[in-house]
Amino acid sequence: MSEQEREQSDKQKYEFRKVIEELKEYRGSGTQLVTIYVPPDRLVSDVVAHVTQEHSEASNIKSKDTRTNVQDALKSIKDRLKYYDTKPPENGMVLFSGAVDAGGGQTDMITRVLESPPQPVESFRYHCDSEFLTEPLEEMLADKGLFGLVVLDRREANVGWLRGKRVEPVKSASSLVPGKQRKGGQSAQRFARLRLEAIDNFYQEVAGMANDLFVPDRHDIDGILVGGPSPTKDEFLDGDYLHHELQDMVLGKFDVAYTDESGLHDLVDAASEVLAEHEMLEDKQVMEEFFKELHDGDKATYGFEPTRENLMMGAVDRLLISEDLRQDVVTYECSNGHTERELVEGTGTPTHTCSRCGEEVEDGEREDVIDHLMEIANQRGTETIFVSTDFEKGEQLLTAFGGVAGLLRYATGV
Ligand SMILES: [Zn+2]
Question: Which of 42, 94, 248, 338 sees the fewest Cβ atoms within 10 Å?
Answer without folding.
Answer: 248
